[in-house]
Amino acid sequence: MLVRFVLLALLAAALAPAQQKPSNLFQEVDEMTSALSEITGWPVKRKVPAKIITKDEFRHQVESRMKGSSTNKELRAEELTLKMFGFIPQDFNLAKETVDLVSEQAAAFYDYSKKRLFVLDSTSEGAEQRVALAHELAHALADQQHPLGKYLHKGSPDDDASIAREAVMEGQATWLTWAYVSKHNGGKAEVSQETIAKLTDNSSAGGSDFPVFAKEPLYLRESLVFPYDEGMKFQDAVYQRLGRKSFDEIFNRPPRSTQQILHPKTYLEDEIPADPEAPPLDKKKFRVLNDGSVGEFDHSMLLRQYVGEKESRTAASHWRGGAFRLYEHRRDKYPVLSYASEWSSPEAARTFFTLYQRVMKGKWKRMLVSERASDHVYGTGDSGKFELRLSGTGVTFLEGLR
Question: Pick from 34, 57, 54: which is nearest to 44 by CA?
Fold first, then answer.
């Protein structure tokens, strides 16, 4: 859900051809591509053009894309949704922060619309450049077998399944990168559990090396990391079960949710998530600004931000489905968030019902409860009236009513 599709779209934006700087880096393209082909069993159908681009050029292209009217409209809805859920502060500028974050984090990228590969000149020469190049060549090789544009953009970008597909793409490329490194160094063309543990240890992430990343809200930081870390773990789990067939399988049969990424067993057993209906509002009075699904990852982040680490992961793991709609009043232009979630049992639903009250209290400066019972809580928060309801294995929420 939410901001990840913006980051993905920006990184995949078509850039104007840049003047290629002299570099020995691209002399390794054929060897890397051949090795990746051996690991996956995928044929190399065409050579991928590769260029060096300056960081300033990259930032300029990102900023230009952000100025598009359709992107502005999407960003407004995205920003408002994030604020209503409580993922970002009310004064947060999503457009500016996204440009800053993407510009800081980007090292290289594969443009699947132009079928070109770019490495930023700010990427340190040597091992860092080679790792970045191998990662993007893994994308390029995957794109030749399973067109990434079609794969990534099925359905709404705010669907939980869309996040899962991004995790497939980035996680597989990350896994293949380190499998290539292992093979290149004379080992097995696989990624050891020790390597995965080291690569996904984010205890020292951010800091002085990435000041923009370090200061971003939890949700944005984790949204950026999730596809690479959890996606790599997912790829490894499916590889351990299916071997080489896993590289095609996760494209031919995409995961249905972030829960399947976080818990690969649910993918292998093809568990189907529930599809609850967010409470509807009068169409004559309200129009839909944004809608989508809310997955285990989103619930985990929400609870981690306002409740705590241990309780959050346990509670979120009982997620079975979630959906939201962001409405806007046609005349008065105020937003209303409508949300529904489904849980593994009535007990799990009640646990979330109780924890979500702590979320509301944490994200608002003011929360006044007018009515409280075992199955509902009504009152007023910073954005207006709210209604939180519990029914069996389901929890629903309306916020911003007038």
Answer: 34
Q: Which two tokens stand for residue 189?
A: 């063309």
Tell the burial category of 186 from Cβ atoms under 10 Å away from its Cβ (0-12, 13-18, 19+).
exposed
Tell me which residue of 107, 69, 115, 85 sits closest to 3, measured CA to CA.
85
Percent of the chain exceeding pLDDT 90 equals 78
Q: Is 52 helix (H, G, I), strand (E, B) or coil?
A: strand
- Cβ neighbourhood burial of 187 (10 Å; 0-12, 13-18, 19+): exposed
Dist. CA 286–CA 331, nearest whole Å: 8
Q: Report the chain's C-alpha Rg in angstroms.
A: 22
- In 3-state terms the chain splits into helix, strand, coil percentages (rounded to 5) of 50, 15, 30
Place of tokens 């490194």: 181
Per the listing, tokens 């590769």 go with 50
Q: What's the rounded Cα separation, in Å, for the pair 250 and 227?
A: 14
Asked if 179 contacts 246 with a C-beta cutoff of 8 angstroms, the reply is: no
Run of H or E including 291: strand 286-293
- Whose CA is closest to 401, among 312, 307, 335? 335
Stretch (H or E) spanning 281: none
DSSP state at residue 28:
G
- Chain centre distance of CA 166: 7
What pLDDT, on a 0 to 100 scale, did the predictor assign at position 71?
A: 67
Judged by DSSP in three states, 331 sits in coil
Contact 124, 140 (CB under 8 A): no
Structural tokens at position 391: 């029914």
CA dist 280 and 317 (Å) reads: 27
Identify the bridge partners of residue 119 per DSSP, sorted by sequence position: 52, 108
Task: Write down all domains in the chain, each with its CATH number in brackets.
Answer: 4-268 (no CATH), 286-401 (3.40.1000.70)
Task: Decide the pairing of beta strands 335-343 and 319-329.
Answer: antiparallel
Q: Is the pLDDT of residue 20 over 60?
A: no
Comparing 103-107, 293-297, 336-340, the range with the smallest average pLDDT is 103-107
Is residue 165 within 8 A of residue 149, CB to CB? The reply is: no
In this structure, what token pair is assigned to residue 396?
């629903």
Q: Are 62 and 99 in contact (CB under 8 A)?
A: yes
Model confidence over 254-312: pLDDT tens digits? 999 999 999 999 999 999 999 999 999 999 999 999 999 999 999 999 999 999 888 89
For strands 286-293 and 376-381, give the pairing.
Answer: unpaired
